[in-house]
Amino acid sequence: MASGDRTIGFIGVGVLAKGLALALAQLSYPVTGAYSRSFSSAQELARRLPGCKAFTSAQELAGHAGLVFITTPDAAIGPVAASLSWRRGQGVVHCSGALTLEVLRPAADGGASVGGFHPFQTFAGLDDPAEAAARLQGVSFAVAGQGWVLEHLTQMAAALGGRAVSIPDAERPLYHASAILACGYLAALLQGAASLWQEMGFPEQQAMRALQPLAQTTLDNVFRHGVVPNVTGPVVRGDVATVRAHLEALSQRLPELVPLYAALTRESLSIAERRGVGPEQLASLRAAVDFYDASKVRG
């Protein structure tokens, strides 16, 4: 099959694959095939996309599509690439934030042009093509590739309303860690905040309703005006007594949150310094955190 064939197929139908497939279809990209170990998952996606077929084997899909996205979990990308037959002119792309093109070497050895296409965005909660396409507006895409695939993926990122960025292989772990901190661990942080409300007797749903305006306003302010001017709280005020009170309460009621609070306090000290908190207060804040964090470790 020549490199002019741009029909798209997905091997692996998880959250990212569904969101990306829906967004591409909304822009009239020819998403014509889907394969998943759960055939019903492939069927469900295929039903949502006109002209898309659910395949019963990964090799059948690989034989069908001109551009194959391997959207399995990271640990399976290499084995999938090694287990299938590829052909010259075909494109094979992974969507991992952490992995390099080396994982697709078996496909390259088979004659395919390989690439990487990782949207710096979450696809959780998407349900329709228009919503999927809208979520990708302004998103950065880590794009890598060989031959025609690199140009095609760069154009695809632009068509989706995003921008292509090049991440050196050695920096991929830092790039991906940044995504996790800004998404998965942000959610974990909010879960920790909600657990304090639950400890006070409020149900989780009410806790999240209380947190949403504060968290959303903070995010809006940070991205509009920067981090340093929009951090609030006792650390940037140099209020050692309040930080100690927080740590004491946490150590008594939810000691598992002490290391998290301590780590975030330490990370905030450089911001506090830029906000004018003096060396003596910074040292006292660090000492308070170290005391309670060490106590938690000893416990």
List keywords for this structure.
alpha/beta, 2 domains, eight-stranded mixed beta sheet, 14 helices, 8 strands, about 10% strand
- Uncertain segments of ≥5 residues (pLDDT<50)? none
The N- to C-terminal Cα distance equals 63 Å
- Which CATH architecture of the largest domain? 3-Layer(aba) Sandwich
> In one word, what is the shape?
elongated
pLDDT averaged residue by residue: 95
Main sheet: strand order: 3-2-1-4-5-6-7-8
Derived structural class: alpha/beta
Describe the 3D structure:
The protein has 299 residues and is of the alpha/beta class. The protein folds into 2 domains: 8-168, NAD(P)-binding Rossmann-like Domain (Rossmann fold); 184-298, no CATH class. The chain contains 14 helices and 8 strands. It has an 8-stranded mixed β-sheet, sandwiched between helices.
Task: Describe this structure in a few short sentences.
The chain has helices spanning 15-26, 39-48, 58-64, 74-83, 105-109, 129-135, 148-159, 172-182, 184-199, 204-225, 234-237, 240-253, 258-274, 279-298, and strands at residues 8-11, 31-35, 53-54, 67-70, 91-94, 113-119, 140-145, 163-165. It is an alpha/beta fold and 299 residues long. The chain has 2 domains: 8-168, NAD(P)-binding Rossmann-like Domain (Rossmann fold), CATH 3.40.50.720; 184-298, no CATH class.
